[in-house]
Amino acid sequence: MAEIRFYHLQRQTLEEALPKLMERVVGAGLRAVVKLPARGLMETVNKVLWDYDPASFLPHDMEGCDSPEEQGIYLTTGDENPNGATVLVLVDAVKSPNVKDYDRCLYMFDGRDEGIVAAAREDWKAFKDYGVDMSYWQQRELGGWEQKA
After folding, report:
1. Region of residue 122 (phi > 0: left; psi between -120 and 50: alpha; otherwise: beta)
2. Which residues neighbour 88 within 8 Å (Cβ) at sequence distance 6 or greater?
């Protein structure tokens, strides 16, 4: 595990922020697995990635698709990595036993949900105890991210 980046969603929703981060991942020539806590949210994110910008395309699909190995972004509620991703995205304090198998983990959590914030704090402490490189990012007033730790 090379690095874990915590992204604290305060001004935008996951549906607004995730596509922009995925553009950066795909633009860098990387692949991602996005692990979500529930199938309903996975289906919402799938639709958002198709519709968020008509001038952009993010190659993706979700668990149960025919060719997961071909996807630049793979959405799941499980722990599989069929597309050979080096980036793992964990949403709303969902856990994965495979974090160490990725080069980078983007940990996105909803700052408006106290239960999720409390779980994120616990996860921050647990990851810190492992001694991995970590950073904490907050949303700026006018959009984008600012590193705070």
Report:
1. alpha
2. 32, 33, 35, 81, 96, 98, 99, 101, 102, 104, 105, 106
Q: How many CB atoms lie within 10 A of CB 9?
A: 23
| Structural tokens at position 68 | 């997961």
At 46-69, the pLDDT tens digits run 999 999 888 888 999 999 999 999
Give 1 or 12, the one with higher predicted confidence.
12
Of 58, 62, 64, the residue nearest 26 (C-alpha): 58
What kind and span of H or E run contains 134? strand 133-139
pTM: 0.94
